[in-house]
Amino acid sequence: MKTFISLFCGCGGMDAGFEEVGFQGIGSYDFDPIALETYRSNLSSPAYNIDLSKEIYDTLKSKKGVDIVLSGSPCQGFSTIGKRKLDDKRNSLLIRGAEIAVELDAKVFISENVMGSIAGAHKQYWNQVESILNSNGYKVETLILDALKLGMGQRRKRVILIATKNFFDLKITNKNIKAKSLKTILHNLPATSKDDFIPFDKKDDRAIAEVMKPGQKLCDVRGGLRAVKSWQIPEVFGQTSESEKRLLEEISKIRRKVRIRDHGDADPVPIALLKECYGDAITENIDELVAKGYLKYKNECVDLSRTFNGKYRRLSWDEPSYTVDTNFGNPKYFIHPEEDRGMSVREAARIQGFSDNFEFSGSIHQKFKMIGNAVPPPMSKWIATVIKNSI
């Protein structure tokens, strides 16, 4: 039986797929005690609480000659959802995984991360990983995996690096299976599985949720029927006149068309431009909307106050789910398709591809964090099958 060790194993999403295919875990490592508690409750590989940013430990050195090293290093510094700091200390852990694989003389090294790890200046970390592996005799291939094309029920893309020491060719299996709808994924989920969710903490949150139809989100910066604007919910955000609504709609469009910067997808709108279009009297409308909290001044420009691309996203039964991330349980971000509540832990786990008997330790917030950070077991199983068939 081929063996593997798992670096930054978390609760064990990556390892679950490899165990299911028949690989034997001989050591898994992470720095999160709650994730490790969850791991030990569900998987067979011995799990160790180790800070992998430091020198390699004896428990790791004893694994020299292992067949496969898995690495799911932290993605927070690479993610486009976060601050995306180039010098985030966690970014270097991507490189650390490759260094450990080389030190252990592994036959195969597999690294998983978000798409942002190969975008822009952050790709330097990925390039360094490839350089380390190439210089130590590994053949490196990079795959982009789309959960939808693997037959899952969520929109989730991940970049996978597979490095092999003996230069065997990867036997890629079908990557275009029909995606599942959320209704199909959550079919027959026990009723008790709906109980473990985070409630709305404010009355206004529930009022916003009640407005959202399946597939819709609160979003001032996009057009279309899926985007519900804050000025369409006056009971929460305040009354606006018809002329004020029209001005807000125009600013929403102009900020994406008239660009000041060479990055991002929108910019504040120059007040001079608005005066050209609507006359000097427009400043009174702007002042009023600033006072109401719908607009904000930025130097000689004005912009929408709420520039997020979407909150209170109500899922749709007939479509795949949004990406299950660490905020998936927060009802300010994601709402059940028909009930005015957030998604439950078991619903999130089912969408992510965990079996219903996979037990999660810790608080409800810790559970959602583990589930969101995990590699979906079906995605891991696909990778493991490719490696098994290739070997």
Features of the shown structure:
alpha/beta, 3-stranded antiparallel beta sheet, 391 residues, Arc Repressor Mutant, subunit A, 14 strands, Rossmann fold, 14 helices
- Count helical runs: 14
CATH topology of the largest domain: Rossmann fold
Largest sheet: 7 strands, mixed
Order of helices and strands: EHEHEHEHEHEEHHEEHHEHHEEEEHHH
What value does the Rg take, in angstroms?
Answer: 24 Å
Task: Kindly provide the name of the CATH class of the largest domain.
Answer: Alpha Beta
Mean pLDDT: 92
CATH superfamily label of the largest domain: Vaccinia Virus protein VP39
Overall body shape: globular
Report the helical percentage. 25-40%
Distance between the termini: 12 Å
Oligomer: single chain
Count of distinct structural domains: 2
Structural class: alpha/beta
Strand content: 15-25%
Give the total of beta strands: 14
Question: What does this molecule look like?
Answer:
The protein has 391 residues and is α/β, with parallel strands linked by helices. The protein folds into two domains: 3-177 and 376-390, Rossmann fold (3-Layer(aba) Sandwich); 220-304, Arc Repressor Mutant, subunit A. It is 33% helix and 15% strand. It has helices at 13-21, 33-42, 58-61, 93-103, 123-135, 182-185, 203-211, 234-237, 242-257, 271-278, 282-291, 345-352, 364-373, 377-390, and strands at 3-7, 24-30, 47-49, 68-71, 108-114, 139-146, 157-164, 217-218, 227-228, 269-270, 295-298, 301-304, 313-314, 334-335. The strands form four sheets. It has a seven-stranded mixed beta sheet, sandwiched between helices. Strands 10-12-11 form a three-stranded antiparallel beta sheet. Strand 11 (295-298) and strand 12 form a beta hairpin. Helix 1 (13-21) packs across helix 14 (377-390) and helix 4 packs parallel to helix 5. 40% of the residues are buried. The model has no long low-confidence stretch (mean pLDDT 92).
